[in-house]
Amino acid sequence: MTLYNDLFFCLKLGTALGCGLVAGAFFAFSTFVMKALSQQPPAQGIAAMQSINITVINPWFMGALFGTAAACLVLVAVSLIRGSQPSTMYLLLGSLLYLLGTILVTIVFNVPLNDALAAVNPNSIEGTTLWARYLSNWTLWNHVRTAAALAAAALFTIAL
Description:
- By secondary structure, this protein is an all-alpha fold.
- It has helices at 2-38, 42-55, 59-82, 88-118, 125-159.
- The protein has one domain (2-159).
- The longest helix has 37 residues, at 2-38.
- Helix content is 88%, strand content 0%.
């Protein structure tokens, strides 16, 4: 049973760290990256964000974002099996918060905004109009993702 407990502890710790890492990346965008991009001429801000949206699709970031989601799915299953263990509710709530507030929000809100931005010419009037809406909408949903990932990290930490 010791090996199981050690592995379970490592899973909880890794998930807490993954949530914290993702929260930190999103926090950077919410607190200064988007503000810096908004201070550029629209064509430059659009082009920079289009480049970021391509570059972010890499094994390191995707591994952190979706690897943490996979760990959360495992923790949901373990939580349902373990039932009344003291940390179960924290694990279940943290997992659901990350899966819904970070992953689902990303898929439903941020990715479609990124796709729309990718389709515009940065030097067009359409691009400039979209950029104004993009900045506020994308950042709003990024705040939600940041808060959800950070709260999930806190819940996993409590569960430790």
